[in-house]
TrEMBL record:
GO molecular function, one term: malate synthase activity
EC number of this enzyme: 2.3.3.9
Protein source organism: Citrobacter koseri (Citrobacter diversus)
PANTHER family xref list: MALATE SYNTHASE, MALATE SYNTHASE 1-RELATED
Protein name: Malate synthase
Family membership: Belongs to the malate synthase family.
Pathway note: Carbohydrate metabolism; glyoxylate cycle; (S)-malate from isocitrate: step 2/2
Database matches in NCBIfam families: malate_syn_A
CDD domains the record matches: malate_synt_A
Amino acid sequence: MEITGPVERKMVINALNANVKVFMADFEDSLAPEWSKVIDGQINLRDAVNGTISYTNEAGKIYQLKPDPALLICRVRGLHLPEKHVTWRGEAIPGSLFDFALYFFHNYKALLAKGSGPYFYLPKTQAWQEAAWWSEVFSYAEDRFNLPRGTIKATLLIETLPAVFQMDEILHALRDHIVGLNCGRWDYIFSYIKTLKNHPDRVLPDRQVVTMDKPFLSAYSRLLIKTCHKRGAFAMGGMAAFIPSKDAERNNQVLNKVKADKALEANNGHDGTWIAHPGLADTAMTVFNEALGENQNQLFVTRDEDAPITAEQLLAPCEGDRTEEGMRANIRVAVQYIEAWISGNGCVPIYGLMEDAATAEISRTSIWQWIHHEKTLSNGKPVTKALFRQMLAEEMLVIQDELGEHRFSSGRFDEAARLMEQITTSDELIDFLTLPGYRLLA
């Protein structure tokens, strides 16, 4: 059981204290990489590793680590994101290299001294060559500091469509360091849209109905399990982004959804899973404990009896409606997320879900795809740039009404709407909203 979250001080403490085995401290999709937040995040992780981290809120409440906290793993940024504050020969270095170097250098001794080690999550990999590059980086760092090969360990997220066809090669390229692969489901859906953007028969429906029981996502999950277990690597399940509710009936619905989602993963043969909120830990842990019984993992689930999973299955179209409410919800989620991100907050609760960059990417690329292929909504309205702009203006008023005048006027919603309009109506699909968004960050 792994919990994920940004590297803010209070969240680091709460996550390490949660009823989970692992905390994945995230410099990637749940962090808006303002320079101060990146540096503070490294300080917070150093203090967590040393056991000295504490936090006092405005009311005077003190947060400290409990005995036996969760295992710490650091997720670095994707290779596409630069760190503009550090340059080499006049060019910004990759943010991922900066994140890796600081976390490794400042913590490897303390981690090894307490029987742990420098452990990483690698996101957004497109091809085995990236995995091979990371293997070189890890091996160089080990040699430079006289550490045995394999001291640095990593789990790699399979969250792009090209990577799902190269899992054997990725595991081989990182064989000295790899622990497992993870189903990064939200970014995978985003990558499906982006990779197949020119195929009108591969346009996805409302994002709310693109769930893990859909054939193309089920094939992805099962192939990842089969590939990992064949090679002796762990196969991690995906993120449950739900947030517990204070309303008892609503909370019961949330926990039932989490239970069903995690049961599907456990029954498929995953070895563990992700949650975004400590309040989901007991529910998800119970499901996996029941599935695993006395076993530590499910490496024995080989899926050898399955029919071969084909490219056609991995690329299969997804059935479902494109609705006006779905399009409007996409607009509201994306605008609110972009506003939070350019304001320095990368992990945002919106409508009962913990949204990060991946879900905002799905929201805006879905609409781009519908416009690009001149699709029609279930009520007969053709999706055009004009319709999108009209809905954007209308949904801005809804957001203002929901959040209140003060929050709206003191925020950066006009900038967020402009960026949303730019990346949704461009003739060519913008690769990542975080690239133009990064220019608006301090």
